[in-house]
Design goal:
The chain is α/β, with parallel strands linked by helices. The protein has one domain: 3-Layer(aba) Sandwich (Undecaprenyl pyrophosphate synthetase), CATH 3.40.1180.10. It has seven helices and six strands; from the N terminus they run βααβαβαβααββα. The protein has a six-stranded parallel β-sheet, with helices on both faces. The longest helix has 24 residues. The protein is globular, with a radius of gyration of 19 Å. The chain starts with 12 loop residues before the first strand and ends in a 23-residue tail after the last helix.
Length: 247
């Protein structure tokens, strides 16, 4: 018989849909790309807040498979913004002990950008203070399809365990807490396999205006929740632990 923890005060893995950059810019009569630039600055802050709170993994939705449908100038601007961010941010993140990963389909990206992503991952691979997954050209359905295709090509059986191990985020545990900013309440094809038992939290703040207080409120809300993973409330103690389970 063993005792298994169901929840902790601080989520080990936080995932964020960083929504609201364009609306934040429009409210200020600014171009949408200005909102994305401000959103990048906000991400720098949230990385710091996550490390201070004891979060081990932070995953953010930076560019979805569907975002290619946006205006050409916005897509081009986002690609350029990522390239500049890599040059500016990677050295600082590496010094802070952050490991960078870029889950997503890289085939559609320019060769130079792909090389930059690979270099950033290699440079930070040994870091352990925080894993930062920047999902770029990522979609939850793409992730499941590429995992199933990979298993089929290797002739391996497709099971829940094998599929999980073939997903783009197999290097980290599934997210405990998923935050979406921007007042919308939908998943938008983000981590749809990995979110099976995640706690969801929706913030009205547009991403560039997401504050430390709003982030802390999300963590505090998570700490108050009882995560049962299919068990009954009676099986889960008040401290968020399974009372007893058969080994």
């Amino acid at each position: 018989m063993s005792v298994t923890s169901c929840t902790d005060a601080v989520p080990r893995h936080v995932a964020i849909v960083m929504d609201g950059n364009g609306r934040w810019a429009r409210q200020r009569m600014m171009p949408r790309l200005a909102g994305h630039r401000q959103g990048l600055e906000k991400l720098r802050e949230v990385v710091r807040w996550s490390m201070e709170a004891g979060v081990a993994v932070l995953t953010v939705f930076a560019f979805s498979s569907e975002n290619w449908q946006r205006p050409t100038d916005e897509v081009s601007g986002l690609m350029g913004l990522l390239a500049k961010a890599l040059d500016r941010e990677v050295p600082e993140l590496s010094r802070a002990g952050v490991r960078l990963c870029f889950p997503g389909d890289r085939e559609a990206l320019a060769p130079a950008l792909r090389r930059s992503l690979e270099a950033a991952e290699a440079q930070t691979a040994a870091n352990e203070a925080l894993v930062l997954n920047v999902c770029f050209n990522y979609g939850g359905r793409w992730d499941i399809i590429q995992a199933a295709r990979s298993l089929a090509q290797r002739g391996e059986p497709i099971t829940e365990a094998s599929l999980s191990a073939a997903l783009a985020l197999a290097h980290v545990p599934d997210p405990d807490l998923v935050i979406r900013t921007g007042r919308e309440q939908r998943l938008s094809n983000f981590l749809i396999w990995q979110m099976a038992y995640s706690e969801l939290y929706f913030s009205d703040a547009l991403w560039p205006a997401f504050s430390r207080e709003a982030f802390q409120q999300a963590l505090s809300d998570f700490a108050r929740r009882q995560r049962r993973f299919g068990r009954t409330s009676e099986q889960v103690g008040s401290a968020g632990q399974v009372v007893a389970s058969e080994a």
